[in-house]
Design goal:
Elements lengths: L6 H13 L12 E5 L7 H13 L4 E7 L3 E2 L7 E2 L9 H9 L5 E7 L2 E3 L11 H4 L14 H11 L7 E2 L5 H17 L4 E5 L12 H11 L7 H5 L2 H25 L4 E6 L3 H8 L3 H7 L4 E4 L6 H14 L10 E4 L5 H13 L5 E4 L1 H6 L1 H7 L5
Parallel strand pairs: 1-2, 1-12, 2-5, 3-4, 5-8, 8-9, 9-10, 11-12
Antiparallel strand pairs: 6-7
Helix pairs in contact: 2-3, 6-9, 13-15
Length: about 375
């Protein structure tokens, strides 16, 4: 694995990749996809309804959530089973079998580092939050006190930002996640594996104590112990990014062992610079290096100017040959059907024809929404 030490070195590396003769997979037809959250993966009838809706409305890809908050919506020997799925039902197996009737591709959507967001402990005794709290990421040089954090969340109803994340810097976390991926692709004939929350919680995070030992070993640089000083070090930014990029590279190799046809994709922050510097998510590099086949920028901005800025940054920084690997994520939960529809048209006008909608939940909760939105897909 290469080691990226400085910004200039990274820029040269990416430029060489862009100019190389690497042949990436070609997907000829436009993609019209939607995310189906785990709430609609708990019963056969819910899955049937989602598939029928997709087929009737020309959706040809579904990203079906099968790992939400450190739990499994499939049969796993590694991951805690979701406590809202009946023990004899396998949602992933069911949707894969049923999707064949409709010629719809199903991608197993997993939240990678995101572990928990509720203000109570998981009910499962084998949940990672209970069994391995030392794997959690933190803003401080100490392990997370889960009970204390949950108590704070109960009082404030603000769950530590988004909640609890696994630490990308902890070596055992990487091993655990690679085992999850291996099990999934070995047991299930998925059309794709979709990585979500493949990032740090935020800019301040990354200080898991075990991860900090790795940082010191790799960079011989821990003479200053204040968070603010370490965050300003170029080596710290490189370290954070490299941990996720190296995981993506390893995960890609594992998946390819089992099938060269599985589409590897990632839901990513839409602004390339913000994704890289704040969240450790250098997804332009993942695409150019071939670690992922598709990137799904979650361009959920309500204002057109913000939506446009994200598109322009992608256009200006990603060579055109990779644009067909972009599936533009457009939200429905936070804007009107008319506003979302205009963004669909605008993305296509700028030569981003592939669209993924977040999410199917809106169409179930507000049936009129799709009636208004679908005219923009014609």
């Amino acid at each position: 694995m290469y080691s990226i030490k400085v910004t200039f070195g990274r820029a040269v590396f990416i430029a060489l990749l862009f100019l190389s003769s690497i042949q990436l997979p070609v997907f000829a037809s436009d993609i019209q996809a939607m995310w189906v959250v785990r709430d609609y993966m708990t019963r056969p009838e819910y899955i049937d309804e989602a598939l029928e809706f997709a087929a009737e409305n020309n959706f040809n890809h579904i990203f079906a959530q099968v790992r939400g908050r450190g739990d499994a919506y499939y049969k796993s020997d590694i991951v805690s089973r979701s406590d809202i799925v009946k023990s004899d039902f396998d949602p992933l197996d069911y949707i894969l079998r049923q999707s064949k009737r409709f010629n719809i591709k199903v991608h197993a959507w997993i939240n990678v580092y995101y572990l928990w967001s509720a203000s109570r402990m998981p009910t499962q005794d084998d949940h990672i939050l209970k069994t391995h709290p030392q794997w959690l990421d933190t803003k401080e040089f100490q392990y997370v006190n889960v009970k204390k954090m949950l108590s704070t969340m109960n009082r404030s109803r603000v769950p530590n930002g988004e909640g609890f994340f696994l630490a990308p810097t902890h070596p055992d976390v990487e091993k655990y996640l690679l085992n999850i991926i291996t099990e999934l692709v070995r047991k299930y004939p998925v059309d794709g594996l979709h990585f979500d929350y493949i990032r740090y919680h935020d800019f301040e995070y990354g200080f898991n104590p075990e991860g900090m030992k790795v940082f010191k070993d790799e960079y011989q640089s821990l003479d200053q112990t204040t968070y603010s000083v370490i965050r300003e070090k170029p080596s710290w930014g490189d370290f954070r990014r490299n941990k996720i990029t190296r995981f993506i590279e390893k995960a890609s190799k594992v998946i390819r062992i089992y099938s060269s046809d599985i589409v590897i994709s990632a839901a990513v922050k839409p602004n390339i610079y913000l994704a890289r510097n704040r969240y450790g998510q250098e997804w332009d590099l993942w695409l150019s290096a071939g670690y992922i086949d598709w990137a799904l920028p979650m361009n959920y901005a309500i204002k057109k100017d913000d939506f446009d800025l994200n598109l322009r940054v992608i256009q200006d920084n990603l060579p055109r040959k990779y644009h067909k690997k972009i599936i533009m994520g457009i939200s429905t939960y936070n804007q009107s059907a008319r506003s979302a529809g205009k963004k669909v048209l605008y993305a296509r006008k700028l030569n981003f024809p592939n669209i993924c909608v977040f999410s199917y939940s809106t169409f179930q909760e507000k049936p009129v929404y799709w009636t208004l939105l679908k005219r923009y897909f014609k």
